[in-house]
Amino acid sequence: MYADIQDDLEIVGIVNHRPGSVASGPQGADFDPAYIRKAALEQEAAGYDRVLIANAAVMPESFAIGAHLSGVTSKLGFMMAHRPGPVQPTYAARHLATLDRLSEGRAAVHVIAGADDREVQADGAFNTKEERYRIAAEYVEVMRRVWSSEQPFDFDGEFYKYRDAFAMVRPQGGAMPVYWGGTSDLALDLCGKVADVYAQGGDTFEGAGDLARKAHAAAARHGRDIKVLMTMVILLGETEDAAWERAMKLEQQVTERIAGGERGIVMGKHDKDEDKAAAGAFQRMLAQSKQGDRLDRCLWTGLNKAFKGRGNNSVLVGTPQQVADSLMEYRRLGITRFLLRSPEQDTDAALIGRELVPELKAQMAAAKAALA
């Protein structure tokens, strides 16, 4: 498998809607357009391929932020997280196609079913997670039909029904990349059926490789190919000791904030200490923290432990070379896309692009040369 993916790489960052860090929490205004622009331009200059614009029931709308970024950047792609349900897939398809054309083909969509039943109820979704995954798959199917159909079409599905559905605008390439997450058998199978990229959370080599194999196998069952992306939190230091000093200081700050009652940094207002993390991915994070503080080469579970598995907080800690070594191992397991972010995103995003990504590309080039 590695020989087939040696040239394949996508580096994804993240643009938040306000400043802040895991240690200090959100800062400044509740919505900061100038900060959004600055964060996007910094990551574009640092060589990221695209950035994620996150979404949840209470967050600012990702499509609007994507439209803003399309006008202030020139080459940076953007992946807009989007939940099926609040709007019709026919409308979403036209909206996304319009954004893609405005940005000259730089748009992508991350379809998410919602991690927690209670959280999505704020948007009026009272169905089960399994139902939401089936809705999401049909939603993507409808969007793809809208993007590809040259004539109005009818559609009769389990959840959606249309007559003479059509769009006068299509994505620049005829479609756009669809990202998809989830760890259940249903989520993985539907991902293989409708998505282009399977997005998984940070994990051990064993765990990440297992999910990547399942995603590739699911796509093969449906006669398709798929790419795999992994989100990983990064803490770099000039030396290994300096990197781990950052990690220990961060763990202390987060633990103190949670002990002081600041639950909103990850946990929702309705969460209680005894609650089980709802998402399968979050349960995997909690299980990681119980395996030990340091796993594999430089995987740190301290934030997963502090947040009781909520959020995607598996961290690679070390020098750029050490972290790149681990990313290369994930690549050998079939993962070719990395969403790299930092607990200190405002200061570290450019550092990751300047120090880590070139080291990763150098190791990729060396591995390719060794195979020649």
Automatic annotation (TrEMBL):
The UniProt record lists the Luciferase-like domain at: 26-336
Q: Is Oxidoreductase found in the keyword set?
A: yes
The domain of life for this entry's organism is: Bacteria
Alphabetized UniProt keyword annotations? Flavoprotein, FMN, Monooxygenase, Oxidoreductase
Q: Which CDD domains match?
A: Alkanesulfonate_monoxygenase
Keyword RNA-binding appears in the UniProt entry? no
- Which residue windows are coiled coil? none
Q: Which PANTHER family match?
A: ALKANESULFONATE MONOOXYGENASE, BLL6451 PROTEIN
Q: What is this protein called?
A: LLM class flavin-dependent oxidoreductase
